[in-house]
Amino acid sequence: MKRFITVFCLVGLMTAAPLALAGETAKAAGSYTGWITDSYCGAKNANADGKSCIIDCYKKGAKLVLFVPATKKTIELDDQKMAESNVGMQVNVTGTMNGDTLKVSKIEPVKS
Hints:
Strand content: 35-45%
Order of helices and strands: HEHEEHEE
Helix content: 25-40%
Distance between the termini: 70 Å
Radius of gyration: 20 Å
CATH architecture: Beta Barrel
CATH class: Mainly Beta
Number of helices: 3
Number of strands: 5
Shape: globular
Oligomer: single chain
């Protein structure tokens, strides 16, 4: 009987541990307002005038990122194709943070 209880507890711990760790890495969905820019120039090109430079840097291997003026930080975006169609635009990006990367579900231009 002791052996059964020990095995039962170990199986329970092995099942619960991955679920607890998964909850720490994935955060709830959120919405972020900022500018689609590139990882090389970042905030410097976070405006409509920086569009051509952003495109050049992207072609040279830079990643497209979201610069959030409120926090003065850039956020990596998992969907580069969706971001590419919004380069140099102020946008509202909805998605789920996974570590340092935002898993994008929607990008919408901010209306002036």
